[in-house]
Amino acid sequence: MRTLEERVAAPAELGVALIGVQEGSPVDLDLRLEAVHEGILVSGTASVHVVGECGRCLDPIAYDLDADIQELFYFEDRVLFEEDEEADQYRVEDEMIDLEPVLRDAVVTTLPFQPVCREDCAGLCPECGARLEGDPDHHHGVLDPRWAALAGLTDTAADEAAPSTESVEREES
Ligand SMILES: [Zn+2]
Ligand SMILES: [Zn+2]
């Protein structure tokens, strides 16, 4: 067994649309490499600093993430799988393993699909873009019924906007 403790620079595009690891920022690898029958088992963590923005209010988000890594790199001479499965297999190539795709998988799958600054972030008014934080009564008095229906759609995605919907509905009846 070998251990690999190393700081490397993050590759480009280590992330998703709203959130990810900046290219060149430090990635601290703390890995064990074990030779097993089929290949080399790599396990441990990759510690990265994640930056992005809240999907609701667009505030910046930043936090440290320890992504778990556990992957088996198969020896080249092992043919264990059907061809259509082979694309998913990591391989030891020329006695080297390429950790970048493993790092990418480990980090990207851990990132939130819809990042928020806080679980209860009130977000922005879908109509005027005003921040709803600290202004829960914010609403627009005159709503075209068609817009009201659209507002209802966005409110299902963000439950905490519900109080303002109720006040709008009361006005209409
Ligand atoms: Zn937010
Ligand atoms: Zn508004």
UniProtKB/TrEMBL annotation:
It holds the Pfam family YceD. It comes from the Bacteria. This is DUF177 domain-containing protein. It comes from Zafaria cholistanensis.
